[in-house]
Amino acid sequence: MSMSFERYMLDMIQPMRDDLTRVGIQELRTPEEVEAQLPTAEGTVLVVINSVCGCAAGQCRPGVAQALQHDVVPDHLFTVFAGQDKEATAKAREYFLPYPPSSPSIALLKDGELVHFIERHQIENRGADDIAEDLTSAFDRYCR
Question: Which InterPro entries does the record cross-reference, listed alphabetically (predicted)?
Fold first, then answer.
């Protein structure tokens, strides 16, 4: 029995996708889905650039999930998966300029403007609690 590499990768990363979708974050898998959501979303938008790396598993996804337990959260919650949904990720990253591509990373937009961004280097050496605190501070500042 042979399994295609693509099928194998989809099966392997599904739990990583589920870490975010189970807490109410909507996946955007194509550039068209990104374009249908990000430019038209009113209010605040959280976009998580998901990744297979250890800092995404140990810090980023748990930190985001913890932050979403806060009493103030963004109006819209989205994620794209770097390295898997490449075109969707590239399209989403257009909204995060001037920041270079970074995965994982977390963006907060308000009325289409990037107001807070957490890059990979701000994730990989911090714990999930620190990332959650960073996000909840941003939520308090921009999402009220």
Answer: BrxB/BrxA
Task: Show Cβ contacts of residue 32 under 8 Å, excluding neighbours closer than 6 positions.
Answer: none
Is 55 in the active site?
Answer: yes
Q: Is the pTM of this model over 0.70?
A: yes
The 10s digit of each residue's pLDDT in 15-41 is 999 999 999 999 999 999 999 999 999
Annotated catalytic, 143?
no
Residue with tokens 């898997």: 84
How far is residue 130 from each of residues 62, 87, 96, 122, measured CA to CA in Å? Answer: 11, 30, 22, 10
Where would I find the H helices in 1-144? Answer: 5-21, 31-37, 54-55, 61-67, 86-93, 128-142
Condensed to tens digits (0 to 9), the pLDDT of residues 48-77 reads 999 998 888 899 999 999 999 999 999 999
The catalytically annotated residue of 34, 45, 46, 55 is 55
Distance, CA of 102 to chain centre: 11
* Under 8 Å between Cβ of 92 and 84: no
Contacts of 36 (CB under 8 A, 6+ apart): none
